[in-house]
Amino acid sequence: MEPDEIKSGALVSLQDLCPSSPFFKQGASLRVVGKLLEYSLETGLATIIDGDNSLIVTIENLKDLNFQVDSVYQFIGELLIQPDHEGVLQARVGRNVDGIDLDLYHQSLLLLRQFQANHLNN
Question: Of 19, 26, 57, 67, which is most buried with the most CB atoms under 10 A?
Answer without folding.
Answer: 57
